[in-house]
Amino acid sequence: MKPKISVCIATYNGALYLKEQLDSIYRQTLKPFEVIISDDNSSDATLSIAESFSDKLPLKIIQNQKNLGFSKNFESVIQAANGEYIALCDQDDIWVDTKLAILYESIGSSSLVYANSLLVDAQGKSLKKTLAQKLKNNFISSKSALNFLYDNAVSAHAILFKQELVAFIVPFPKQTYFDAYIAATAASLEGVIYVDETLVHYRQHATNTLGNKKSKKRLISEKIEEKLHKKTAQNRRMLSTIEEFLTIQTLNKEEIERLKKLLSFYKGFEKSYFNIAMFIFLLKNKNTFLTITKRNKLSLAIKKSIGYKLYKVAPFL
Fold first, then answer.
1. All structural domains of the chain with their residue ranges
2. Predicted local confidence at residue 227, as pLDDT
3. Does position 284 have pLDDT exceeding 80, yes or no?
4. Domain over 5-203 is classified CATH 3.40.190.10
5. How far apart (Å, rounded) are the C-alpha atoms in residues 137 and 141?
6. Pair type for strands 94-95 and 192-203
7. By the 8 A CB rule, do 149 and 242 touch?
8. Which residues contact 204 (CB under 8 A, 6 or more apart)?
9. What is the pLDDT at residue 220?
């Protein structure tokens, strides 16, 4: 039987590229069961472009009366999906014709499957680089939520997941990126599968301000203050992220214990120079917490274990 796949699109002032994206959905070799567009109170022609596809796609359009924001808009459209499977979709990319078919054929008993993406410019021309190459991350299959705590390889535009996952992922957390949260939850439920193919042309937008800003000369004291501020802000974000990961309902006992231990290390951040226990813990668990990154794991474990007091003494570590 043909699978029921809901394609969920969150739009906001997407008139420039939306038609090209919807055309690529129309060309899918495995046709979607429904295409749901949740528009976040656009002021351009987004809605009229979407409505022009009503005779080509099984389209449902939801109009938000006020702007929800990117993350909440995706959360809303996911909850409106009725299919057995859900594919998230940006408003400005281009799907390879076989995207849905390949992802569906690959998901098996896993909760989620994802693929790589080809980077393209504003005109859709290949930049001859994949998303994996840009991020310099390992794109992995996983059965542990902890793999996605520090780094993420799973982008929303490249995933297909089972409807049963929805009950575990909404509402989205405030701090953690929602695609990382979805991936982590799926990994600890029935697992995440990576398909080593480029199934989305991921558009990179040019910005008018790029290169226009003049660099401002700063005093050494100002640079030190900025470094300290950045370090403490990162620590606060990680505290929040770990706490949000602990809300994942599908975590097993071992994952919960590891997260709680890591949380205790971060809580002592401002009182320490260097947390040797955290360093040993991260090094011991490098293939869990640091498995996605391609950066040197020893160096990362050292940097993550440096406390606030040592940064005051040597802020450019």
1. 5-203, 220-313
2. 75
3. yes
4. no
5. 13
6. antiparallel
7. yes
8. 119, 120, 121, 122, 127
9. 67
- N-term to C-term CA, the chain: 58
* Alpha-carbon span 227 to 221, nearest angstrom: 10
Q: What is the pLDDT of residues 160-189, one digit of tens each?
A: 999 999 999 999 999 999 999 999 999 999
CA separation, residue 58 to residues 6, 52, 290 (Å)? 10, 12, 42
pLDDT at 97: 98
> How far apart are the C-alpha atoms of 128 and 122, rounded to whole Å?
14
- In angstroms, the CA 140 to CA 193 distance is 7
pLDDT in tens, 190-227: 999 999 999 999 999 753 233 344 445 667 667 667 77
Q: How far apart are CA 40 and CA 47, in angstroms?
A: 10
Residue 1 vs residue 87, higher pLDDT: 87
The contacts of residue 146 (CB under 8 Å, 6+ apart) are 184, 245, 255, 258, 259, 285, 288, 289
Distance of alpha carbon 26 from alpha carbon 58, whole angstroms: 10
